[in-house]
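Possible race condition, two jobs.
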Amino acid sequence: MKKVIVIVGPTASGKTKLSIALAKHYHTEIINGDSVQVYQGLNIGSAKIKEEEKEGIKHHLIDVVSPQTPYSVYAFQKDVRKLIENMHLPMIVGGTGLYIKAALYDYEFIEEKRNLEFEESIKDLSNEALYQKLIEHDPLIHIDVHNRRRLSRAYEQALLGHPRSSKTKKDERLYDALILYLDMDRQVLETRLIDRLNKQLDEGFIDEVKSLLEKDIDMNVIGYRELSSYLKGLCTLEEAKQSILSVSKKLAKKQKTWFKNQMNPIMLDALSPNLLEDAIKHIDLFIKR
């Protein structure tokens, strides 16, 4: 199996700094594992790495599509796997768990293309009626009946002979992956999130969102969503800031639980003065095994 290093953790946990040091040490390149940083123009709010911060390390899957172009987990999976096969020691860095797991594990996706005729045929069906039709073709499926998009997609796949319940191998890894999670005290992380948001605002985050809105781009992404509401006069700036921090803290808690349950990572103290040395020890053992 091809070996892959994965650095994950919440926003503001220090993934970028550690990954640059590790990429230098192991003479490798970095694959972005953040679902927002793939988009051009979403720079400040996504904490996208600046050119000077890369320190000569090549980064992949950053600024690959415009915000008007959907970039699905399927596209990410396909692109990452191609990169993994062409790198001697691939390193994925980010916090979007589903995207990273989909690339590393035997998740099967079918490329989504809108079928307008199919959409028209089900538009008058309630979610419950649609679910009843779905289980006629895929009786073993477990799905959120309230998620209309997922429900309709599952029904379409079942009609095409690709029932979701048949995808049983998604917990098998396709690569020998070392998952390192950067963990830190919740209070320290909260302070970091506040400092980071203030810095983003000083760097022009509001102007970045305003520029996107002027192009009719309204991203449903943490930070962009709240500042968009502020610019539309739906809330004050202070209310937008508090909302961003609240959602960011909830996301960090959710990320930690998700990664621990789904990917069984090695937990590293993000605040340890020996963080780099600890990471190198784990990676060296990983490479030798």
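Job #2 (started ~2 s after job #1):
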Amino acid sequence: MADNYLEKKMDDYRRGAVQSHRPRRSSPDKTAKSIYVINGCSPESEKEIVSLRKAGHRVAFSSIDLKAGRKLAQETGSQHHYIDARDSIKLQQSLDYVAEKWGKIDEIKDPSGYLHPNT
């Protein structure tokens, strides 16, 4: 009995009658951008991150608030980098990491004016 079952399944497979159970990945949205937001846990930046994610963009952000950063990342599906963006070496390392993983960063945003508070 088992041999007949296996032979039937193999015949179905060869004919192409057996469907894969894996869901197919959708192709990435060509209009989606990869965006890095500085000081993502400020109120201005949080709003920016939420709106960018709703628009379908990939978002990574830096923040020195570990707990709030993790929470925001989980809620929005973004990527949190626990760094002080004023540390230029750590910021560059974070940007390089994101660019390597995503292939590029289309925009860097600082909605709260964290790096340039007078502008």
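The mean pLDDT is 84.
Logs attached separately.
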